[in-house]
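Protein: XRE family transcriptional regulator
Species: candidate division WS5 bacterium
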Amino acid sequence: MTKKKQGIIKASAQGDKELKKIIGSRIQRVRRHLGRTADWVARGIGVSRGAITQVENGRNNISATLLWKIATVLECDIKEFFPNVPDAKTLDQADIEKIGKENERAADYARKAFKPLKND
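Structure follows.
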């Protein structure tokens, strides 16, 4: 089962299916918002209407090229089709405190290892 946190999808086989559905529904939402038909999009990018509806229903994988063509014909940013991408790491208060303690230890070590020189 996939875990969601703030709209983030975990990478897994189930997540792949869910991601296809999300991307497809977002394509459909943009298309409908613009008052365009699946047939209009299909003709604009040179595929069948069925291919577009398959993508919009999350039944087909979509190549980066086709995704770019759809975004171009709909005159939207391609990132509108994707859910949130997780950050590599988000710092929480515990992380910040740990970093602070490590900095204190490093400063203590530096003071002991490198005694200040006396000026004559």
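Remarks: Residues 13-33 form the longest helix (21 residues).
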